[in-house]
Amino acid sequence: MRRKHKHKSEHFTLPEIVTPKVKRRIGKTILVLFILFLVIASILFVLGVKVRFILGEELSVNIKQDSSSYLVGSDQAVDLSFSVVNENFFKCNSQCNYELIDLESNKLLFSEDFYLEHNQEYHKSVVVDSKEFGNRLYLYSLNIQCNNIKSLVCLTDELIKHNSALFFVETELTAEEKSLSLDIMEKLETENEKLNSLKSKYSEHQTLLANNFPLGLEMKEEELKLKLINKSFIEIEQHLNQQIGFWQESEFGKFIPTPKLEDSLLSLTTTGKRIRELLSIRNNTIGILNQVANKSGEIKGAYYHSPLIAEEVNKLQQVNDLLISGEQLSDEKINLQVKNSETVIIKLLEDFSLQLDQLTNHYSPIANVFVSKSDCNALNLIKKQIVEENITVNTVNLDAFIDKNCLVDKTNLTLLNVTVAKSNFGFESSMPDFKLAFGKQVKQCCLFDECKSYDSQEERTFTLFIHGHALNKANTPEASMAAFAKLQEELQDNAFVNAAEISFGEIDTNLNNCAFPLTARSTFYYIPHLGFGRYSLTAQKSERIENYALRLREILEEVKKNVPNHKINIVAHSMGGLVVREYLDLFGVNGLDKVVFINSPHHGVTGKVQKFCSLIGASKECEDLSAGSVFLQRINSKQLPLGIDYYNIRSKGCLMETEDGDGVVTLESAYLSGAEDIIINGQCLDSLQSSLHSDILNPELYPEIVNILKGILAD
Question: Is the predicted pLDDT of residue 263 greater than 90, yes or no?
Fold first, then answer.
């Protein structure tokens, strides 16, 4: 019985509390909870990633240049090399495109699409053709645009990011160009000598005209020819100066020998010969007058009462007077008239002398009168004796001669008085020599179908774009600066050179050689440290606006040092406008020309924007940006410094609680007294209803921003 009892106690078991059915339910519950956990975690992860895509820096396009500056002969091609590295967020891949533009002609040289995996590097080398001229600086603009590719792990909106860089290619003269330069210089110097020889001859002829005033009709014609020749001198000088300009600018292909130089030489030679011929004619006329005047004694004695002689002498006196007055004077006609009068007078003298001698010799013996010389007195004495002695003789010839020549009242006889002098062919040149000023051959910067010398006196502007507050303090300074990249590209299409980003020790001094408007963007988030001959940069973003103003001063001093020939404009977005205002308050307007504010919170941010800024933004910046802050009260208690122009661009179209604005800054807060006010209408397109604040910088969405800035900066 005991054994049996023991056996029963060994096989005793308790009843089961958890049934298999319950176990199955528990397993299912755990599985559901685990799946729910995974779903919630995935949702939170996706939301977190999406928020980071919205607020973070999902794509940064970085350009590396093997070299940015090249020095080559004008006949050499240039190999331009660069690399593109994208810093993508969360294993994103991206698609990109590059364009290389020759800014001299604004012509697209190369373009290519390429694909980049996460953090992959793309390297490219392109060869640009040689240029026509030496002593030139040519700029090539490299524009890169990329966007992340949307995928299961890359929740991007595929927004396009831009970056750019400049290549500077400076060309030298080739050996052939240097030889051509010397040849052209010698030709220009020879033409200069010919011109001065011509001017000397011209001065000689002009002096002859001046010394022989009044001018005859023929001489006036030659004077007109001289005036035309003098006009050609001006044109020749202008042409030579133009050729000097081409030589200085090394545009040897534009050299043209002076076309009017030989024509002027021929014309001046012919005119000079004619002037001397006319002066010789006039001198001949005056010589004849003097010859006749020298016979005045003979005329007075022998032909005291001759009316024919008196008539011819009177004609000659009129010629003398005409030479003095110059009225309707023709040297050739007068010379002919004088010659005729002289011939008549000489003939009359000869005829009268012969007749007088004949009559005297014939009648003096008849009248028994002795005369010592033959003249009218002798004939009158003979006739008187014949009448008194009643001598019978035929006196017809005697009476006729006396009646014709010896009965004129002596008071009517006018003796010739010559008062005009002969021409003097001597001269002194009064026209100064023309001297070519070769100077030195200048170097030129060639952009937008125009070349300007390095030392051009044209006004130059450098526009610096200053970004605003980085809403996410984790973003890099480059992400803040990138907001202006597309805007700078559009301005470059309007003849503003896009110098991309600038930083300490990295401003290419070639920019100062270009007398064209420049644009560049920079940041106040970097603190520079100079060591081992170069700057190192440290990002420091959680600072007061006053500290950022001090860094802005360092940036501007760097710009002034490297681009000293340019006036500086500032275009500041959002908080950047307050940084600029603080700079102006601390350091004044020295070196600045214009300041443009875009959507700047001059009176602070409020409401959700203020809370959101404090949540994810830099605390010190957000504190200064808050409406009513000590910083804003101080800066708004002062007027803008005088001496420069201010422009304030505001946006509206987004409802911000109860006010209109750009989604971040209300229209009222963006108002600035003392600045020209410009309002742009827009809309917020994002889920947070804040995109207009930054979208205003996108020329694809708001093309008017380009026209507004172009009008302001180019004025």
Answer: no
Task: Point out the least confidently predicted range of 2-16, 114-128, 265-279.
Answer: 2-16
Quick check: 618 pLDDT over 70? no
Confirm if 205 and 271 have CB atoms less than 8 A apart.
Answer: yes
Torsion of CA 298, 301, 302, 307, to 10 degrees: 100
Given a contact cutoff of 8 angstroms between Cβ atoms, the answer to whether 288 and 320 are in contact is: no
Residue 101: helix, strand or coil by DSSP?
strand
Nearest to 374 by CA among 384, 362, 386, 366: 362
* Mean pLDDT computed over 547-552: 94
Distances in Å between the Cα of 459 and the Cα atoms of 24, 106, 370, 564, 714 are 86, 22, 106, 12, 10
- Location of structure tokens 């930083």: 503
Paired tokens of 617: 């933004």
Cα–Cα distance measured from residue 570 to residue 580, given in angstroms and rounded to the nearest whole number: 8
Please check the confidence at residue 655 and state whether its pLDDT lies above 50.
yes
% helix, strand, coil for the chain, step of 5: 45, 20, 35
Task: Please give the Cα distance from 213 to 216 (Å, whole number).
Answer: 8
pLDDT at 292 over 90: no
Residue 5 has pLDDT above 50, yes or no: no
The SS3 assignment for 640 reads coil
> Beta strands 136-148 and 444-447: pairing type?
parallel
Distance, in Å, from the CA atom of 521 to the CA atom of 570, rounded to the nearest integer, reads 10
Every domain of the chain and the residues it spans = 179-412
pTM over 0.85: no
For residue 452, give the H/E element and its range.
Answer: strand 450-453
Three-state DSSP at 306 gives coil
Whose CA is closest to 575, among 620, 615, 518, 634? 620
Q: Which two tokens stand for residue 583?
A: 């700079």
Please spell the DSSP secondary structure of 106-160, one letter per residue: TEEEEEEEEEE-TT-EEEEEEEEPPPS-SSEEEEEEEEEEEEEPP-SS-------
Token couple for 107 = 């012509």
- Please enumerate in sequence order all residues whose Cβ is within 8 A of that of 112, keeping only pairs 6 or more positions apart, or say none: 97, 98, 124
- Nearest residue to 96 (alpha-carbon basis) of 110, 78, 84, 79: 84
- The answer to whether the peptide bond before residue 214 is cis (omega within 30 degrees of 0) is yes
The structure tokens listed for 499 are 């110098």
Q: What contacts 35, CB < 8 A, 6 or more positions away?
A: none
**pLDDT tens digits along 353-393:** 888 888 888 888 888 888 777 777 888 888 888 888 888 88
Burial string for 374-409 (b: 16+ CB within 10 Å, else e) reads bbbebbebbbebbeeeeeeeebeebeebbeebbebe
Q: Exposed/middle/buried for 316, CB within 10 Å: 0-12, 13-18, 19+?
A: buried
What sign does the CA torsion over 167, 172, 176, 177 have?
positive
| Cα 449 to chain centroid, rounded | 12
Contact indicator for 521, 527 with CB cutoff of 8 Å: no
Q: What does DSSP assign to residue 446?
A: E
Please give the pLDDT value at position 161.
Answer: 92
